[in-house]
Amino acid sequence: MQSDLNLPVDLGTTIMALKFDGGLLLAADSRTSQGSYVSNRMADKITPLIDDIYVCRSGSSADTQTVAGYARYSLDFHSQQLGKRPSVQTAAYILRDFAYQNKEVLSVSFICAGLDDEKARIFSIAQGGAIFEQKNYAAAGSGSTYVLTYLDEKYRPNMTETEVRELAVRAVSLAMFRDNSSGGCIRLCVLKPNTKPERIFLQGDQVQSMFPVHR
Amino acid sequence: MEVYSSCGSVLGIKYKNGVLLASEKIINSGKTARYFGIERTMRISPTCLITASGEYSDFQEVTTILKERQESDFCHNDSHSISPKSFHSYATRIMFQRRNKQKPYALRLVVAGIESAKPFLGTVDVYGTPIVDHYVATGIGEHIAKPILIKAYAENQSMTREEAEKVLTDAMTVLFMRDCRGYPHLEISGIEIDANGKVQVLEPKDVEINTKNRWPSPNSVDLPI
């Protein structure tokens, strides 16, 4: 029988970023799995890169933590030479370059989001290193496949912050309901111009109460 | 080479004074439609366009390589510009070099442009095989749509732009109906040379595929016994 003791730690995940009228919201679940075992049920998949540019990580835990770490270092160095905070596009492309150049050995996918002069920008970096700027929202990770159509249907541009929070929380909890690799708690990060990033944490039992009643 | 973000078939056809390219504005992740409204055609130089089917990250990379080549040539400022045929040749060399390293770019590249005042259309496959032809179809389109392009070109070698557009749209409609990864939102881009010899990259046109009257009857034999 094959041993499951050395399975890679995987961020089977639901992550998303949505623009609203006045800013940007990032949302993620909190489950890290090793095969069928939940190795961390309180993971924080929303990682700050520099100031108010954040990245949502999905894929291999080790790979994404390392690449995000290199990107943080690279951006810090770059911002010192540049004399100001680099753009979200720069941050996204730094992540993309790592992901693309090492695509044979890495298993990473990111959503890099932040505000550039009060304008929200979202970049999605897919598994092979393809980079896409998303106009309104992005979702990634194994759980996203279950809620992409839900977001397609319910999202409208220029929603209010409350509406978008409700939508994101609903979408992540629906994804957690169906995706075994996503679960635990919901972490949010609200980015608004001239405001400190707000980190919100919804406990697991709160999330569970939002699961649909399955008949 | 695993393909994670795949782009669908591309069709291209030469007409009297230019080349038209048609592709679906979507990226697939396996069999899931993943990213929408994606620009599939990139402008490398004032006389050359490039598009591809296959792994999108490799397409972004090759576009960057060719654009850098164009930039460095521009910086020479010697009133010499790289022609589409040269870009095609250069692309062939890059693809072949990667093939030799067993690390191919998972792409079928299409290079289109105006070469010596005449339309140019060529492709390069994963092995680095260059093909220059009057019409191209990549991916599953090579089986389904190419015969339509061949027939249309055989009937009329000097099409107008409108006729070429119609041929491409018809072929893409068939492709949409017969390709699982098809999508009804197209981008038709192109490049042409006018009577005065001025080369113009055409504004990419968004086309919605219409399959009206293509569903003749609800009958289908699914229970043969």
Automatic annotation (TrEMBL), chain A:
Organism: Blattamonas nauphoetae
Protein name: Proteasome subunit beta
Major site of localization recorded for this protein: cytoplasm
Keywords: Cytoplasm, Hydrolase, Nucleus, Protease, Proteasome, Threonine protease
Database matches in Pfam families: Proteasome (PF00227)
UniProt catalytic activity: Cleavage of peptide bonds with very broad specificity
Regions crossing the membrane: none
Molecular function via GO: hydrolase activity
Cellular component terms (Gene Ontology): proteasome complex
Residues making up the signal peptide according to the UniProt record: none
Highest classification ranks of the organism: Eukaryota, Metamonada, Preaxostyla, Oxymonadida, Blattamonas
Assembly and oligomerization: Component of the proteasome complex.
Compartments where found: Cytoplasm; Nucleus
Protein function: Component of the proteasome, a multicatalytic proteinase complex which is characterized by its ability to cleave peptides with Arg, Phe, Tyr, Leu, and Glu adjacent to the leaving group at neutral or slightly basic pH. The proteasome has an ATP-dependent proteolytic activity.
Family designation: Belongs to the peptidase T1B family.
Automatic annotation (TrEMBL), chain B:
Pfam families: Proteasome
Gene Ontology cellular-component annotations: proteasome complex
Domain of life: Eukaryota
Classification via SUPFAM superfamilies: N-terminal nucleophile aminohydrolases (Ntn hydrolases) (SSF56235)
Localization per record: Cytoplasm; Nucleus
Similarity comment: Belongs to the peptidase T1B family.
Designated name of the protein: Proteasome subunit beta
Species of provenance: Blattamonas nauphoetae
